[in-house]
Write a structure and sequence with these properties.
By secondary structure, the chain is mainly β. It has a single domain, classed as Methylamine Dehydrogenase, Chain H. Helices cover about 10% and strands about 40% of the residues. The strands form three sheets. It has a four-stranded antiparallel sheet, with no helix packed on it. The protein has a four-stranded antiparallel sheet with strand order 5-6-7-8, with no helix packed on it. The protein has a four-stranded antiparallel sheet with strand order 9-10-11-12, with no helix packed on it. The longest helix is centred in the first third of the chain and has 15 residues. The termini are far apart.
Length: about 170
C-alpha cells in the first residue's frame, strides 16, 4: 500500500511540475551606432532598465533604444575607462562599475554623472588598488573584490544613501 501511495505522489508531482512559470526570451541585437565588443556584465536596475558592461563602454537598454556611456579624457564626470569588468545596480538605482585597472565608478542615472574611485598612495580612504574584478551587493553597501590579489573593499551605505568612504576589508 505504501508503494502505491508513493507512486501516486510521484505521479502527481510530475504532473503538476508542468504548470510552472513559462519563460520567454527575446533576442536583443547590439546597437547599430556603437556596437559592443564583448559583454562582461549585465544587471537590471529598479526602473527595469538593462545595463551592459562591455570592453568598449557602458550601455543602458530601455527595451527599444540604447544609451551609450564612454570615457571622455577631459571629463571627470565620465567613466574612468571604457574597459569594464563588472556591473551592479543597487536598490536605489545607483550603478557601480568595476573597471579593468581603473578602479570603481559610480553612476547616478538621474544626473548621468560618474564619480570615480581610485587608489591614491598615502590616502587611507581610497581603494586598496585599482583592480576591482567583481561587485557584490551587501546589506549596508557593496563589496568589491580583486580576484588576482585577494583584496576586498567595502563601500558603506548609511540609511539607504551610499557614502563616499571606501574601506579595505582584507589584503
Amino acid at each position: 500500500m505504501k508503494k502505491c501511495w508513493l507512486f501516486l505522489l510521484l505521479l502527481a508531482a510530475f504532473r503538476w511540475s508542468g504548470f510552472g512559470q513559462e519563460i520567454h526570451f527575446t533576442k536583443v541585437d547590439p546597437p547599430k551606432d556603437d556596437p559592443w565588443t564583448g559583454i562582461t556584465g549585465i544587471t537590471q536596475d529598479s526602473q527595469g532598465y538593462l545595463w551592459l558592461a562591455a570592453f568598449n563602454g557602458l550601455y543602458k537598454y530601455d527595451g527599444n533604444n540604447y544609451t551609450f556611456y564612454r570615457s571622455e579624457a577631459y571629463n571627470p564626470n565620465s567613466l574612468g575607462t571604457n574597459q569594464l569588468e563588472h556591473i551592479f545596480a543597487n536598490k536605489d538605482g545607483i550603478i557601480r562599475v568595476a573597471t579593468f585597472g581603473a578602479g570603481l565608478d559610480r553612476l547616478d542615472p538621474l544626473t548621468g554623472k560618474f564619480t570615480n574611485f581610485r587608489h591614491r598612495t598615502n590616502e587611507p580612504g581610497s581603494l586598496a588598488d585599482n583592480k576591482v574584478s567583481c561587485i557584490i551587493g551587501a546589506y549596508n553597501g557593496i563589496v568589491g573584490r580583486n580576484q588576482e590579489y585577494g583584496k576586498s573593499i567595502h563601500v558603506n551605505s548609511v540609511e539607504g544613501k551610499e557614502s563616499e568612504s571606501i574601506i579595505q576589508l582584507s589584503t
